[in-house]
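Listing S7. Sequence submitted for prediction.
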Amino acid sequence: MLTRSPESDSRRQMRARARALVEAGGVEQALATGALPKLVDCTLSEALVLGLMKQGVRKYFAIFGHGSTDLGEVLRVYEEEGATRTVNCRNEVEMAHAATALRWQYGELCAVITSIGPGALQAFAGSLAAASNGVGVYHIYGDETTFGEGYNMQQVPKEEQGLFGRMTAILGQSYVLHTPEGLRDALRRGALCVNHPYRAGPFYLLLPLNTQPARVTVNLAALPARPDLPKLAPADDSALDEAAAMIAKAGKVAIKAGGGTRGHDAAVRRLAEAAGAAVVLSPGSTGVLPDAHAQNMHVGGSKGSISGNFAMSEAELLIVIGSRAVCQADCSGIGYKNAQGVININGDLADALHYNKTVALVGDIGAVAERLAAKLEAANAAKNKRAWLDACAGKKAEWAAYKAQRFACPPLNDEVWQKPVLPQPAAIKVVADFAKEIGAAKFFDAGDVQANGFQIVEDDATFDTYTETGASYMGFAVSALVGSALAEKPRYSIAFTGDGSFMMNPQVLIDAVEHGVRGMIVLFDNRRMAAISGLQLAQYNNEFRTNDRVAVDYVQLAGSVAGVLAICGGNDAESLRRALKSAHEHDGLSVVHVPVYCGPNELSGLGAWGQWNVGNWCADVQSEWVRQDI
């Protein structure tokens, strides 16, 4: 039987520091009032917690192991005094996603903690979602000891030094705390990485097992705080005047609103109206212009839409805002077939200059867009765009009619289910409408659910939908619900997931109950990887190894976890609406299982309207790309 020894002097001092921080309200306040001295003698683990607290990090997602026991002890004491909060999870990929969601959805900076080896590798894999979507999160992993006394269990078994640090440095920025006194530099670099205004991402702190408990004298006043960076914009008007003249002259202007436009809704709308531009959304920017706005052409790209892809291909002048030109959003670089010039608004130089013939307006999207819009309004630049916007409106009406036909499709007889069930677009539309009705946020998992989802949602503001199309990580949406466990003001959220994505991280059922998450998982079950089956059929007229014959009772599976309400969504729209209402009334996590049709009926999907450099399409796409001028 384990017994806890009396608290040592060092633990009592640690506890006193944690209590002083809570009473003062933070590190800066404690220093100002004298509640804490400037110089503190403590372990590297506690110094790290103090340094992160100075940047506003008080929340941790953790799976502790032998590679993080000392850091875990510090967090135990600090949590007992109310200085920090830690949520323990059951899978490192899941908690990496949860931390990403907490920062992405709520803007709350947090950290992920794992042990050494397999746990760190899993969290590292999960951090791809944060890296791909520009979300800043601290990742803290255990690492091999610095004395080189022999292999540590779970380190990379190779006669080389610092391998985990090298791996993590490839995906983002990394710092191995080989020397405890390097903490100040590590946290300065980390603060800029996770809070970068245009290219935030994960920052990896590697903590060797033997440096965690090492004593260090830390200067609290010298530890970096969270940076407060000013908005940047061009210093003079020359580039803005050039861009305004190009827009005023062009007859067909399209704005491609990338993920960076999120939160800049008002500025993008003002610019679009002043330019007389059709606005084409990316999967991650739905809502930047209200869905019903006459100039909103919906998504465009390799999946895209009738109206969005029409505007992309017909525009003579392209205005790119906050986009990194990912293949799915710009049809592998060939989506703008008639564009003769580009205006690119972006804070990142490389992204701003991705296309040729570009006038680069580098800086904060809101600041630049407002200045450019003012010039366009003064010049009445939208006056010659009526014919163009009328043509786009016709395509938008065509797209609306096309979608409406599929949303109204009755249940179709499915070969696997041996009964009529809802086609996926119709089912997703019911759930998306319900989410809008109750004011819920929507998270979309990778696969066919995601691909249909960003064609379906009708958002009127950004941050109503989160679709992780950067890495397209299966299991992200269900894991994201756990992020609200640490949110100051959690918002009811619905995860839209497929059967394949759900089974990537089913342990979320346990973690959500453990940590009091209130939300919903809607599981669209077609017993296959429908997005890949469809791609195989489109490219090679055959599908291969994208389904199985194993039936799973997801209602029984989810319902076996105490605290989870599991409901069958039924086989028609009305049954699904009733199930959603019952699930929402549950004070906890609910799961709604919806069997959906997969087959040849054309009403079972929303189609693809662009081109993509994959499979046997590569030769055609690359041939067009070589001939592109921009």
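Caption to Listing S7: primary sequence and predicted structure tokens for the chain studied. The longest strand covers residues 589-597. Residues 370 and 549 are 56 Å apart (CA to CA).
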